[in-house]
Amino acid sequence: MEALEAILTRKSVRQFADKEVEQEKIDILMKAAMSAPSAINKQPWVFYVIKSEEKKAEVNKYVTFGKYKSPIIIIPCTNSLNAIPLAHDLMYCDLGAATENILLAAHSLGLGGVWCAVYPRKENMKKIAKAIGAPLGVMPYAALYIGYPSEDDKSKVKDKYKEKNVKVI
Fold first, then answer.
1. Is 3-149 CATH 3.40.109.10?
2. pTM, two decimal places
3. 114: Cβ–Cβ under 8 A, 6 or more apart, which residues?
């Protein structure tokens, strides 16, 4: 799948088939994530891939919007030890780029996914960090539910382009 096709045809998938995601595909998703741009190439991230049903249930307690049943949940996390000194907030931009790379790569591999925000809800971030055993300085940014789309998934690709939102000056 070409990059532009992946961008224009990606959609949020919220219903997943009961089929395991192969490790080779997970590896590709992680390579795609870490290919994202980051400020001064600091790469202030760490990614948790959750397969355990017990851990997924624990994480779901603290995801405000979502809580889907998927074969894996990827938790992109900020790693403040690798962030730019005096500009820590840039790591959230970096994680946004990495998160989108994961979703686009998933789509190109025949997988689907949905991005559920964790940041900026500090209390939920702390609880998920504890649930996944994240060390000090590592905080969850999002919960990405990833898997093969179910036959029941009814989500459609939407044309989201709005010319009124483009200002040429």
1. yes
2. 0.95
3. 12, 13, 14, 66, 68, 144, 145
